[in-house]
Write a structure and sequence with these properties.
It is built from three helices and no strands. It is an all-alpha fold. It has a domain of about 25 residues. Helix 2 crosses helix 3. The chain is elongated and about 85 Å long. The model has no long low-confidence stretch (mean pLDDT about 80).
Length: about 60
């Protein structure tokens, strides 16, 4: 009876493994994945920096 239950538990274990393009980018193409992530981060920083400068200039003119 125990081997039968062990076999049922083995069959119930998940065998599905998702293949995500984003995960694939960071595992197989590490350079391009991290370069893209760094580029997105730098772009957001530039946008925020220039937006804050614009707000500061508007405050100074008032």
């Amino acid at each position: 009876m125990i081997p039968f239950l062990a076999n049922i538990q083995y069959e119930m274990d998940a065998k599905y493994q998702e293949k995500s393009m984003l995960t694939n980018l960071f595992t197989e193409h590490k350079f391009w994945g991290w370069t893209g992530l760094l580029l997105i981060f730098i772009t957001i920083c530039f946008i925020l920096f220039f937006q804050v400068r614009l707000w500061e200039e508007e405050d100074e003119t008032k």
